[in-house]
Amino acid sequence: MADNSFFSEQSEASLVKASIISKYFFTWANVIISTQDIYKRGDRIAYIDLFAGPGRYEDGSDSTPCMILERAIKDPRISSRLVTLFNDKDTNNVKSLEKTIASIPDIEKLKYKPEINNEEVGEDIVKMFEDMRLVPTLFFVDPWGYKGLSLRLINSVLKDWGCDCIFFFNYSRINMGLSNPLVEQHMSALFGSEKVKELRERLKGESPENRELIIVEELCQSLKQFGNRFTLPFRFKNCSGSRTSHHLIFVSKAFKGYEIMKEIMWKQSSSCDDDGIGSFEYNPAGNLPKQSLLFQLSRPLSDLKEQLLTEFEGKVMTMSQIYEKHSVDKPFVKRNYKAALIELENERLLTVPKHRANTFADSLEVTFRRQE
Length: 372
Fold this sequence. Notes:
By secondary structure, the protein is α/β, with parallel strands linked by helices. It is built from 14 helices and 11 strands.
């Protein structure tokens, strides 16, 4: 059962989470709308939140549903297309959310009235999404623990064009659940039954730090088994920075979505090293993080330079092609690649057409070569 005391006051971590989701939604929405207009691929987009909560914190701060709706109202391109579905199994949360949404100024400017449901997330909802052909949808799943979160649920939305998912991964609860036979069904729904068995064996004797890295990597790999998927986790530490509380995990079929979210999470990172490589975590204590195996992180810019020389030796590629081919599951954002290529150019380890010094356009062609 959800502890509604969570909504008494918005924490800084909750604000970071809501900011990541809101920033991604509006960037994603504009990309999708432009594509729809060019290729005549429909005239609606959707935002679905299955664990929506009451809408506002008791201190008056907006939670994610209100942040999305209030800004959407102000954008005619979005307000004329946006379909929203909010759900919560807690009746009190639903009543509060209905009241909160109804009180938003100019809410009637939305072409489609927000739909608010009072259902428990389970087999019926999964089956409903599996049988539907969805309009482009940003799907947000924020359960309190693990009940209701499953690979099938995520895949039921991601199957359709333009659909992306962001979900809350309660690491501390799931870490405990993996060794609890009473919640075997929920762990299997999240990782897959065979993966759970393999994961338990792999985790034996591992340190707490390694357990986290392994669990998050296995989850992301499980998500990828459904097809060509890009996954991106963002970690949240507790107040002391001593342990992980949860992760926000993004899943998309499109590199463009991955690129957009990576930039957003990079900007929301609590720290960057001297080379501008982000931590991809919120850490209120400011401790230096140990990064996820998934990202092969903790690699300085010099490592990136060496990787590029090794992987692309003798090849001719544009900056954009290099970034798309190399950056997946690595911590580097586009500006890191441009910085690395500028240094390699200055070291005469690659050849590029004449261009303005210390800049690197996305379309600039690069020929990699080693020193003789």
